[in-house]
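Researcher: Let's try something more involved. This one mixes different molecule types, so please make sure each is placed in the same coordinate frame as the others.
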Amino acid sequence: WARAVRGLLLDVSGVLYDSGGDGGVPIAGSVEAVRRIKASGLKLQFCTNETQATREKFVKKLQGMGFDISVAEVTAPAPAACRILKERSLRPHLLVHNALIPEFAEIDKANPNCVVIGDAAENFTYANLNEAFRVLIGMEKPVLISLGRGRYYKETDGLKLDVGAYMKALEYACDVQAEVVGKPAKMFFESALAEMGVPPQQAIMIGDDIVNDVGGAQRCGMRALQVRTGKYRPCDENHPHVKPDAYVNNLAEAVDIILQQL
Amino acid sequence: WARAVRGLLLDVSGVLYDSGGDGGVPIAGSVEAVRRIKASGLKLQFCTNETQATREKFVKKLQGMGFDISVAEVTAPAPAACRILKERSLRPHLLVHNALIPEFAEIDKANPNCVVIGDAAENFTYANLNEAFRVLIGMEKPVLISLGRGRYYKETDGLKLDVGAYMKALEYACDVQAEVVGKPAKMFFESALAEMGVPPQQAIMIGDDIVNDVGGAQRCGMRALQVRTGKYRPCDENHPHVKPDAYVNNLAEAVDIILQQL
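Model: All components are placed in one shared frame. Result:
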């Protein structure tokens, strides 16, 4: 599975670092692994569903942990959503995390004709959900754009409902299907590949999420590895629908194998 | 459609009265219509999805508007849920309206092994939703009981998401299917019929909700009328799946026609 590779797509949380506490801790060997990928001449793009911060802040956090990473190397849902909004002249009502709002600074938000929902965390109040719902139900043909479809995630103070759960609530109430931006959407992986200029057949996705990373990338024609770090659980290896091209213990091991084949 | 009737099931909100403001206003002719049903000797049961108040409070409000109604005549989701909880030795974590909590006074709630969700309104906070989610996801086989599956409803200050939307959020996050108590669940209509001692072939449901009242009752073998009051909208008459046995302008008109046939 490691042959004829020209580019790598890396998930971030759970592959580069474990989140929690005051930001997170690098996973052993990952800082060095990113450096080795870059030194090898392989193309590299980071592909994240992170929507609790702007890419600027997110990259700064990773640089602070020692990672060689820049904003241009990060494919994230909010900028992808902004491209869609511009292309289709959509003016969003935003139900997102406060820290994400600057990503939409250049977007016209007056008199909204769609709703964009992200992992709004504490902004998922009864009042805010009703407000987003009213904007949607008031449209002749409701347009709901969701920054991911995650079910839940873990923080230091426990499990939290992710954006996908709130997306489902609005979908049901308005009898509409959300357009998902972010993994596992095909268009999202394709835009990351386009950034690298590498066709799917020559790219490998490395992630910890069996459905959103591995399944999504494979549906685009890429190979995909699951790391046994982050949200990986042993029962993932019996997943009824998705089978990675290989399992690796962590990013460092994946990079070892791939670089040997070059 | 009005022949060989022995019992009537009446929806309450939108059929007897319109909610809003400080409680609601009787729909013209409805107080008298209830009186005429009782005088005719027909069996009568009220069948509501109301979960923002105990039956006691709900009945008191209706009596205050002039309706001849008693607690025993009301089939509502919370008491139905209590029967299920007792039968199956389930101890609920409650995510419901504060005013509904007394309905569960006699139910053991220690060390919960299921979640009961109702229209919790202001109690649908981010923290409370995460808490209900954690209780569910922590179970080997999550049990979610939902007091209705409504999408939304109208109050004087605007449209509000109903319990069904939050039910869908938890269903998706926990990959579980909720057990719905209340209309349109078959068992709920059947328990209302049992209260009257009338078989479905001899009963008519009268409601304003094309799916939950009309569709639900018809699936139980009952006839069902839609009134053109309450949440009725002209587009209901083109519903792709549900066709009432008849439309009537309001409850009074339905009772006129039914009593003529006796």
